[in-house]
Each structure stands twice: as structure tokens, then as C-alpha cells.
Automatic annotation (TrEMBL):
<comment type="pathway">
    <text>Glycan metabolism; pectin degradation; 2-dehydro-3-deoxy-D-gluconate from pectin: step 4/5.</text>
</comment>
<comment type="function">
    <text>Catalyzes the isomerization of 5-dehydro-4-deoxy-D-glucuronate to 3-deoxy-D-glycero-2,5-hexodiulosonate.</text>
</comment>
<keyword id="KW-0862">Zinc</keyword>
<dbReference type="GO" id="GO:0008270">
    <property type="term" value="F:zinc ion binding"/>
</dbReference>
<dbReference type="InterPro" id="IPR027449">
    <property type="entry name" value="KduI_N"/>
</dbReference>
<feature type="binding site">
    <location>
        <position position="203"/>
    </location>
    <ligand>
        <name>Zn(2+)</name>
    </ligand>
</feature>
<dbReference type="InterPro" id="IPR014710">
    <property type="entry name" value="RmlC-like_jellyroll"/>
</dbReference>
<feature type="binding site">
    <location>
        <position position="198"/>
    </location>
    <ligand>
        <name>Zn(2+)</name>
    </ligand>
</feature>
<dbReference type="Pfam" id="PF04962">
    <property type="entry name" value="KduI"/>
</dbReference>
<dbReference type="InterPro" id="IPR007045">
    <property type="entry name" value="KduI"/>
</dbReference>
<feature type="binding site">
    <location>
        <position position="196"/>
    </location>
    <ligand>
        <name>Zn(2+)</name>
    </ligand>
</feature>
<keyword id="KW-0479">Metal-binding</keyword>
<feature type="binding site">
    <location>
        <position position="245"/>
    </location>
    <ligand>
        <name>Zn(2+)</name>
    </ligand>
</feature>
<comment type="similarity">
    <text>Belongs to the KduI family.</text>
</comment>
<dbReference type="GO" id="GO:0042840">
    <property type="term" value="P:D-glucuronate catabolic process"/>
</dbReference>
<protein>
    <recommendedName>
        <fullName>4-deoxy-L-threo-5-hexosulose-uronate ketol-isomerase</fullName>
        <ecNumber>5.3.1.17</ecNumber>
    </recommendedName>
</protein>
<dbReference type="GO" id="GO:0008697">
    <property type="term" value="F:4-deoxy-L-threo-5-hexosulose-uronate ketol-isomerase activity"/>
</dbReference>
Length: 278
């Protein structure tokens, strides 16, 4: 089996892309399909962004020819967040109950990872993000209730939002994976505004709980050369290290952020003043 692949592009090249080319390069539209895995391998930090939705039978993480490994996690670690109904993740025989917005860290070397839904009519929807790893860290279930929330922004500027950090320097341990999620308050639509870049890390943004008929205008590009991609519910954006990643929605919503690169420090960001954006 071969997984989708996206090459890395330079800021200069991205500045010339039209809507369709931009979407083909950075938007993942095939996530959360019932009864299957979907993965895309990005050449930015070799991060794999994907999903699995088990319905009436458990689904085991398969191997892929692109990885040239004996099994998926032979040289990789994996972060999981469930955005659907209750489910389980079985890692080499240890079973974790994973409710909506709970996360699991799966360490390098795990041979069998099996995903199940508790109720087929309300299936678990697992967002998956995997990056190369050099060392085995213990598997860990991180309940949403135990991720200390931080509320930032303000209702006056329509950007009040609560950030839940799961896998990072002060949370669940990993080699290079940093992951969590952000929920916008009712009436607030702007994520990550003011925006930032972090040349040391790529990032994937996966949008969830976008109400039917609503969209998010995801902003990307260098701060002085911005572009937008219109994103629907359960779609993701691959964000290059040099790119801002921010968005304005037509309603409030949530998004998972997942990063890989130089360090595990969540706050390692270079902020961009709003009036410097172009
Ligand atoms: O709402 C925000 O601001 C975020 O959630 C920012 C992301 O966590 C991020 O981009 C981390 O680098
Ligand atoms: Zn970021």
C-alpha cells in the first residue's frame, strides 16, 4: 500500500500558486472517511497527517511501502486525538478508552495499533499525526479533563479561544511530536490571530466541529505574502515552517494543531503584528 505524498515548496513558489494549485499542495480533503485509514506524507519534517474511522469492526494500523519499514511505527511515534464518538485504541494489547477530545501518545516500536468504535452509529473519528522518532517513550492516554486549559484572546476582537496542550515539553513526553487542540468561544471566529511563524517546526491544522454550511478561511504564506485556503469541517492544512497558520471562520469551531521539528517548546513562536500582515 502506498500513501499520498506532498512535496515541500519554497515561499517563492507558493507566492505564484493559484487557488487550485494551493489547495492541491496544502489542503487534505480526504480525512475521516468511514471504515478506512487516510494518510498523507509531507516532506516538511516528514510528518504524516491522517485519520481512521472504525465503524463496525476494529481497524489495525497498516504498513506502507513509502516507509520502507517492517511496520508503521518501527522508526516513528504517533499522536492520536478523537473528534467523534467514544472508542478504543489497543496498543500491543493495552487498551485505552478514548472519548471525544481525548488524546493518545504511541511510542516508537509499537507493532500493533488497533482502533475501534464503541457504537457503530456514532463512530470514533481519530485524527492521526506521526513523525520520525529516535527513542521509545511510554504510551500515554491524555484525557481532555487533565490537559490544563489556557484561554487567550478576547470576545471584543472575536478571537477568544481555549488551548489544550497534550503532548509537549511539560506534558506527555515525545521525541519531536507536539500536539493539542484549540476551541473557539461562541461568537469568536479568529484562530491564531495575532499570527506567528516558527521556522523550526512544521504544523498541521485539522479543523473540527465546523457547523454544517460554515467554513474557515485558513490563512497561509509568509507574513508579507499571505494566501487563503477555504477549509471545510474535517479537513486539514499542511503548514510549512515559514508560513503563518491562522484563520477566520464563518462561525466558531475547533482545530487540532500538531507539530514536528527542532524542539518541544509550545511557546517557541515568532509573533507577527497584525498590521504587518500583507
Ligand atoms: O489558537 C491559537 O493561537 C493556537 O492554537 C495556535 C497553535 O497552537 C499553534 O499554532 C502552535 O504553534
Ligand atoms: Zn504555530
Amino acid at each position: 500500500m502506498i500513501m499520498n505524498q506532498r512535496y515541500a515548496q519554497s515561499p517563492k513558489e507558493v507566492a505564484t500558486l493559484g487557488t487550485a494549485e494551493l489547495r492541491a499542495s496544502f489542503l487534505l480533503e480526504d480525512l475521516m472517511q468511514l471504515g478506512q485509514f487516510n494518510f498523507t506524507y509531507s516532506h516538511y519534517d516528514r510528518a504524516i497527517t491522517g485519520s481512521v474511522v472504525p465503524v463496525d469492526k476494529p481497524l489495525e494500523l497498516p504498513g506502507y511501502e513509502n516507509l520502507r519499514s517492517d511496520f508503521f511505527l518501527q522508526r516513528r511515534e504517533l499522536g492520536i486525538i478523537n473528534v467523534g464518538g467514544a472508542g478504543t485504541v489497543n496498543i500491543d494489547g493495552t487498551v485505552y478508552e478514548v472519548n471525544k477530545l481525548d488524546a493518545v501518545y504511541v511510542g516508537k516500536g509499537s507493532v500493533s495499533v488497533v482502533f475501534s468504535s464503541n457504537v457503530a452509529t456514532d463512530p470514533a473519528k481519530f485524527f492521526l499525526y506521526s513523525v520520525p522518532a529516535h527513542k521509545e517513550y511510554p504510551h500515554q492516554l491524555i484525557k481532555k479533563e487533565n490537559a490544563i486549559p489556557t484561554t487567550i484572546g478576547s470576545k471584543d476582537t472575536a478571537n477568544e479561544r481555549t488551548i489544550y496542550k497534550y503532548i509537549h515539553l511539560e506534558g506527555a513526553k515525545s521525541c519531536q511530536l507536539v500536539m493539542g487542540l484549540t476551541v473557539l468561544s461562541t461568537g469568536c471566529v479568529w484562530n491564531t490571530m495575532p499570527a506567528h511563524v516558527h521556522d523550526r517546526r512544521m504544523e498541521s491544522y485539522f479543523y473540527f466541529d465546523v457547523p454544517a454550511g460554515q467554513v474557515v478561511f485558513h490563512l497561509m504564506g509568509q507574513p508579507q505574502e499571505t494566501r487563503h485556503v477555504v477549509v471545510q469541517n474535517h479537513q486539514a492544512i499542511i503548514s510549512p515552517p515559514w508560513s503563518i497558520h491562522s484563520g477566520g471562520g464563518t462561525s466558531n469551531y475547533g482545530f487540532i494543531w500538531a507539530m514536528a521539528g527542532e524542539n518541544l517548546v509550545y511557546s517557541d513562536m515568532d509573533a507577527v503584528a497584525i498590521n504587518e500582515l500583507r
